[in-house]
Amino acid sequence: MDDKTKLITAGRPHWRPAHPVNTPVERTSTILFPTYDDFIEGKRKITYGRLGTSSHRALEEAITALEGGLETRLAPSGLQACVAAILAFVEAGDTVLMSDGVYDPTRKFAEKFLKKFNVETIFFDPTIGADIDALITPKTKVVFAESPSSLTFEVHDLPAIAAVAHANGAKVIVDNTWSAGVYFKPLSHGADVSIQACTKYLSGHSDCLLGSITSCDETSAKKIFYSLLQLGSNVSADDAFLTLRGMRTLMARLPMHQETGLKLAKWLTKRPEVQRVLHPAIKQTPGHQFWKRDFTGSTGLFGVLLHPVETPGLKAFFNALRLFSMGFSWGGFESLCIEVDPEANRSAKPWQEEGPLLRIHAGLEAANDLITDLDTAFKAMEVARNDQIA
Questions:
Q1: Which of 305, 252, 256 is nearest to 278 (CA)?
Q2: Would you name the residues annotated as active-site residues?
Q3: Any idea of the CA torsion for 89, 77, 370, 389, to the nearest 10 degrees?
């Protein structure tokens, strides 16, 4: 089925007379079994609130259908989804290869937590492709990718990376949050595990926290399940319900994010204040050719590198914004704009740009209104700059 149909039909209640459209929220800790046979049978399905209820199973079913995997498990945040997926496949003495452009908390988990348990992390250039072979050793158990990169939006040659990883017995895990599982299917391009921060586009309303881990095979799925089990992971039934409800409108929302994001990105390329725009659909962005080959669209998150500007000018820019808000998440209906600094989070390919880098999320407001908002902010930046010169 088409993704549009999957997002409407997957995870719906099984047919019975007068059943509801949506799977009801089940909040519980204890599951009761009326007979011994029910107890034995239940041990293979739903047994305890922490392991999920029908609310969780419905969302897992829908995400599995969207990602094209075998099984999905839920985590209480996107970060814990990344953490649990990595921990499922490594032990002391192993090595993880991790993209230099991953989500900063994922990087810090590798640098600070894994290091304490004698798991080494080696960071690689997001544009490395098949040359990742030079970094793989018999100790390499996981290659962790994020495509496009979290702040700088390089796109991986994932099939080439996966081919090398699998030839050396390593698992490939991909943070697929940017595409929402709609515009990119990592499991179809060589990944063993696809992760999403469902907090973002899947829920779509900036009102819950949740992560998902989708496996492509039974061996990986079992390891993921036991990793979450041993971490004591627990997901709110209400957050599962909100995420599934958000997914029902994903195919209505996502094209709007894409259209507005592209319109803003193209407008920004013509601004004199802008050095370059970092957007996978723009030819100058590293990995654009892989985006064209492997992705079917783009979303609303991208970067804007400005020419050098002093702090008063940058402060005036942000303070003049009225439709764009400053906030650390994205993927909701609202537009966001913040300053980010990749310099502290790069080692394999240092970030050496002098100008400030903005991260923009194009929400569901009218694109022309958002352009007017940015134009007003740039004018405020110029006034502050002139005042400083004077």
A1: 305
A2: 50, 103, 175, 200
A3: -80
